[in-house]
């Protein structure tokens, strides 16, 4: 991960660290590495989404481990310096600053994070479509609903999950959502 961190400009690295801290503090549901990666690539840096996700996971592990061990800023920076592969100076400076400013808040919320082992729902989009024809059938006129769920997994990575449903399947899906809503109103 240290090799990949060297590629990331300081301002983008600082933004990534801020997003990770906010995620660990439950202020945002996750880190949108795809969007951040696109912006980094637009600035002229050649880094893949997978590599950026690895960096984000490493930093998330670093901050959450430091929080669970209740490390001070100096203890964290000292432990970073004693690692096998040393981080670039700009990265250590950013980590020092972010941890100094917001590290204590993570330590407080770390107990709550231990209970969250499933992903978090972020957004849902849907659209109605009609299949007009195919290679094997000239006239389908078959309506369907495409649903895209945006979720943040426990590590904070935001992904989209899409699926299609027939109209009867969508009606059943909608009915189940109405049942959940009515149960939630009683709580």
Mean pLDDT: 82
Give the ordered list of helices and strands: HHHHHHEEEH
In total, the number of domains comes to 2
Q: What oligomeric state do the depicted chains represent?
A: single chain
Biggest sheet strand order reads 1-2-3
Strand content: 15-25%
User: Tell me about the biggest sheet?
Assistant: 3 strands, antiparallel
Q: Which residues form runs of ≥5 with pLDDT under 50? A: 109-116
Distance between the termini: 45 Å
The strand count comes to: 3
How are the secondary structure elements laid out?
Layout: H1 2-7, H2 10-24, H3 33-42, H4 49-68, H5 73-81, H6 89-115, E1 120-131, E2 142-152, E3 158-166, H7 167-186
Antiparallel strand pairs: 1-2, 2-3
Helix pairs in contact: 2-4, 2-6, 3-4, 4-6, 5-6
Task: Report what the structure shows.
InterPro entries: COMM, COMMD4/6/7/8. Residues 120-187 form the COMM domain. GO terms for molecular function: NF-kappaB binding. This protein is α+β, with helices and mostly antiparallel strands. The protein folds into 2 domains: 1-106, no CATH class; 120-185, Nuclear Transport Factor 2, Chain: A (Roll), CATH 3.10.450. It has 7 helices and 3 strands, in the order ααααααβββα. It has helices at 2-7, 10-24, 33-42, 49-68, 73-81, 89-115, 167-186, and strands at residues 120-131, 142-152, 158-166. It has a 3-stranded antiparallel sheet with strand order 1-2-3. Strand 2 (142-152) and strand 3 form a beta hairpin. Helix 2 (10-24) packs across helix 4 (49-68), helix 3 packs across helix 4 (49-68) and helix 5 (73-81) packs across helix 6 (89-115). It is elongated. The N and C termini lie far apart (45 Å).
């Amino acid at each position: 991960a240290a090799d990949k961190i060297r590629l990331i400009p300081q301002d983008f690295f600082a933004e990534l660290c801020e997003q990770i801290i906010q995620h660990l503090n439950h202020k945002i549901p996750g880190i949108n590495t795809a969007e951040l990666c696109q912006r980094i690539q637009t600035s002229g840096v050649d880094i893949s989404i997978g590599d950026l996700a690895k960096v984000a996971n490493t930093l998330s592990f670093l901050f959450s481990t430091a929080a669970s061990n209740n490390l001070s800023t100096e203890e964290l920076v000292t432990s970073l310096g004693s690692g096998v592969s040393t981080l670039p100076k700009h990265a250590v400076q950013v980590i020092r600053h972010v941890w100094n400013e917001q590290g204590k808040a993570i330590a407080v919320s770390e107990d709550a994070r231990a209970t969250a082992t499933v992903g978090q729902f972020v957004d849902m989009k849907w659209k109605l479509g009609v299949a007009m024809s195919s290679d094997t059938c000239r006239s389908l006129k078959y309506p369907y609903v495409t649903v895209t769920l945006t979720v943040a997994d426990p590590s904070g990575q935001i992904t989209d999950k899409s699926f299609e449903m027939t109209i009867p399947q969508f009606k059943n899906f909608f009915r189940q959502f109405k049942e959940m809503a009515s149960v939630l109103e009683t709580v």
